[in-house]
Amino acid sequence: SSCPIHLIKPKLKKASQYSVVGFGFALSAALFYSLFGIPGKLVMESMDSVWPYFMVMGQGTLVGALACYFIIGKDKGWTKVSRKDHLLAMLAGLLWVVAFASLASSLKLLGMATAWPIANLNTIVTVVYSSLVLKEISIRQQRTKMFAGLIMGVMGIILLVLART
What we know:
Blueprint: H1 5-8, H2 15-44, H3 51-72, H4 83-110, H5 112-119, H6 122-132, H7 139-164
Helix pairs in contact: 4-5, 5-7, 6-7
């Protein structure tokens, strides 16, 4: 189970309810992802390196995950997860560390207004990845929209970089 979807999911009866609640969680993620960058940027301005912030932020991540587990999700579902899924989750965590280290370094070098949108090209990459690997979107049917989105995203990044220089 996840935090806190396992509390809500049994109460949802229609696919449209899943969409509304999922959309709400996605907006919440966007809000909190953008908010965590602000204190991070403020702290990193006084540091020569991003690594002290990175380590303390990692502690905050652990405390937050433990709080979710102990306050919201005490079902011990993680003990029933297969070894393969544990390893995949650990790989996801390791990849997140590399991504966050790259983001923190770019925030320090470029500033939040430029670095954040560039780092969030992951939206475009994720759509392509989910289409090719996970088959969540039909590439044949959505090819034009996907390429148009990719081109607009890259153009937006170029404009941001040009505005910075």
